[in-house]
Amino acid sequence: MNLSKKYLKMIATASIAATICLTAAAPNVLAVTQPEADTPLAKENLEKLSVQGVERLSNGVKLDLGTNEAYIRLFDKDLVKVSVLKKGEKEFESRGIAKKESEWKTPKFKANSSSDTYTLKTKELTVEIKLKPFGVRFLDKEGNVINEDYVNQDKTSGYENGKPYVFKKTDDNEDFYGFGEQAGLEFNKRGDSIGMWNTDAYAYTKDTKYVYTSIPFFIGLKDKKAYGIFFDNTHRSYYEMGTESDDYYYFYANGGKLTYYFAYGPEISDVVDRYTDLTGKMEAPPEWSLGLHQSKWGYTADEIVNIAKTYREKQIPLDTMHFDIDYMDGYRVFTWNEQYKQALKQLKSMPGFHAIAINDPAVKQDENYRMYQEGTKNDYWAKNADGSTFIGPVWPGDSAFPDFSKQEVRDWWAKNHDTLFNEGIDGIWNDMNEPAVFIDNDKMYHTLPLDAYFGTEDNKIMHTEYHNLYGHDEADATHKAFKIHKPETRPFVLTRDMYAGTQRWAALWTGDSESNWEHLQMSIPMISNIGLSGVSFVGTDIGGFAKRPDAELFARWIEVGAFYPFSRIHYDSDAKSEIKQGQEPWAFGPEVEKISKKYIDLRYQLLPYLYNEFKEATDSGKPVHQPLVYQFQHDEKTNDISDQYMFGDSMMLAPVITKGQTSRSVYLPQGVNWTDYWTGEEYKGGQTLTVDAPLGHLPIFVKKDSMIPNRDVQQYTSEKPLTNLVLDTYLDKNASYTFYEDDGATEDYKQGEYNETSFEVERKGNKIAFKQKQEVKNFKESKLEQYTLKLNNAEKPSRIQAGNSKYQEVGSLAETQGKTNTFFYDAKAKVLYVSIPADEKKEVQIR
């Protein structure tokens, strides 16, 4: 048993009750708000279920369990749905499911029965059902047990006083990942006591149990094989991942039905792909959203304009300024303060700037306010237990809360975004959507009371069930706003809270972090696990939100933050901070400004690579920020690494996340060789290095046989057309890459308007061969004219030619730009640059 971790968690997970009552006039959070105390599972009251009858179904089996019944349904050869219900109840399918049961093509399977088991077998998976007591286990096609119910206590699953639960067998070599957004410094969640209840946890710490987002999906890694379990339950839920014993783990919820999906890998990537088949893939983001974002709660209208101008003057790339709640008229949603409206016009008059506006769900209770009038007239609000409209204080004061469970409310909310879009807003930032309410007492824990409800009088959805779905449905409505008002434009929605499946509409940031080293350290495992939970577009506020960083902390944070999938500097109001320190790159002096520019420049240089990583995320659910175990699950040394990660497929980052540290150890996963990105020095995998990392240096290593597409640095993403694609190649034997290109702005790619070009660089005896092939050519607006093949750690060639065409050697890299069929060899760096025409059809041979 992991006693040290368990001991720490026992201390950490005590529920923290806020002791102050917040009002809109004085919303100064003094403690991390947490929900009421956890509801434990009474082990003495667990059900002992046995199978009393079996009925084969077209896609599985129905089991008579006496007072209960179970359904085991095969959605695919490696995906199974398990439901245990009270007799006569309908099976459950939450709003998180994108691909419904009827949309799956049932795989071929065989069903067999014996005196003590009933078995379903597909090409990849065997589901073995124990009859007495009832229990389920999953085996791979070789007959190895992947996962099984914990039958030792004869009470594997069922309901305890209305709480659905499942116990699973484990052993001490099984590790757990995912669980969406969870605080903590460790990536591996084995030994953790985890809870899910979307909570406005301002300035949370590593020990805060409940934060903003609930994604009840996790991945188990056992014997180097991966599986996933999605506990599709929207109530407050709990996960005891080997906290009590190394023999079992269990999960349960405060209410709802027992429904979970089991997905088999064996690779982690297979599990994530299958899970996002079920809950939905993200859409391709607009390219501008991959640039840097700058934000602060409390920017004046003039500051927004001046900060943007300063970025341009200092030639630090930036795409987007955010408008926090100050832009509204008295914090009324879908309104404008005239000064900020004018600031937006000035911002948009400058080349390359995009704007994102915050939007909160709370609608001010004001009889003269259009939104409140319409919502009241049409019965659009969440209700108290007695049927009256729930009113609670948030930023605008006493407010009503839209009932997003209703389609007509989501449509109404979407329609009202014209107020923002008509002024030039490009993206929407959904905040406070846990939903947060500024009351903390013995009945309300910073949200609506548990006996509030949504829906209609004859079809109520209790707050206990709907709470974790509130932001999910708001994201749906916000995404729809783009379809109504900006139908030719890719949506960008940023949200503070999610449920499973929200990734198909929105990006996520990890809420109100704090400017300290703990939060910098915590950002890496948090983003890693969120990525494994199907949310690729995610980031943490660079520099921290609450309080203020010093120069060293900000420098280290921007080094990492420039490589978050969602990269935004955002910080708290000066009114809430003792130190009135800005968090713009130049706010900490020339040294930190130089460091900031270096890494922001590098992000923009790598945009072709990053954009392609996001495209792959839309296809397979693959995270952009990948924990090492995602690619190297057969190397057990990667299972617990929390402070290194892969930025896409090829680049490994090992940031400094400790105050005063100027060197660090770096593990190079086995199975591949590695190159130091900065020095070109090469290393074999499977070893640990100690590397120097003075302030301003982020250790980066690149997998050998990788090709990283990049380009010239721009001040914003659409400043210059992509005419020269640099193929930064780290060749061992064979490096290949398929480069995707579209317009980066519209949804024309969905109609096939894109290009795909495959590149291959291969070492053949004493020569190196480069070839390309246009796989898809439907994007007519491409401006690509040349490829610059950059070969690292290369020898000077005697000649380069394609067919009969010989390449000319030139004296500088600059001379190869815009002039194809040339090459330059940098003898000091041992780097060869070859300028190849984009339409070259012949193999380029380097001898």
From TrEMBL:
Start and end residues of each Glycoside hydrolase family 31 TIM barrel domain: 284-612
Keywords on record: Glycosidase, Hydrolase, Signal
InterPro entries per the UniProt record, alphabetical: DUF5110, Gal_mutarotase_sf_dom, GH, Glyco_hydro_31_AS, Glyco_hydro_31_C, Glyco_hydro_31_N_dom, Glyco_hydro_31_TIM, Glyco_hydro_b
Keyword Signal: yes
PROSITE patterns named among the record's database cross-references: GLYCOSYL_HYDROL_F31_1
SUPFAM superfamilies: (Trans)glycosidases, Galactose mutarotase-like, Glycosyl hydrolase domain
DUF5110 domain boundaries: 725-793
Matches recorded under Pfam families: DUF5110, Gal_mutarotas_2, Glyco_hydro_31_2nd, Glyco_hydro_31_3rd
Signal peptide: 1-31
Domain Glycosyl hydrolase family 31 C-terminal, residue spans: 621-708
Family note: Belongs to the glycosyl hydrolase 31 family.
Protein name listed in UniProt: TIM-barrel domain-containing protein
Species assigned in the record: Metabacillus rhizosphaerae
